[in-house]
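Field reference: sequence -> structure
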Amino acid sequence: AVVILTYVVLQGLLGVVPRQPILNESIRNVYFHVPLWFGMIILLLTSAVFSIKYLRAGRVGDDVVAVEFANTAIVFGILGCATGSIWANYTWGEPWPNDPKLNGVAVGMLLYFAYLILRGSFDDEQRRARISAVYN
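Structure field:
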């Protein structure tokens, strides 16, 4: 994994990319921005699957896995927003253009921040796991 990621980073920063009039060098961001979003979506879906598994079987381990997938997805989402803002600034001239997809992503990220805040508001592990699994 380390070798592959090193190759991708080096290729993304130093490799040959097509020259397009509006994109120029910002096309390099495709190596980073798009995989972050795909990774985030897959991680959130996996988190939801483990929440459903928790609700069906009641195993605490499923809840722990679900929350860790959600935590990792939030990190990917923050990095995706950052790389997207950089890309948008160079491509469209502003870091956050008024685009419904971007605003939808912001709302989705806020919902998952609320998920983490909800989890932190309960002391009882069983109750926290059950309510956050339903929310997820």
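Note: The helical segments are 2-14, 33-57, 60-92, 100-120, 125-135.
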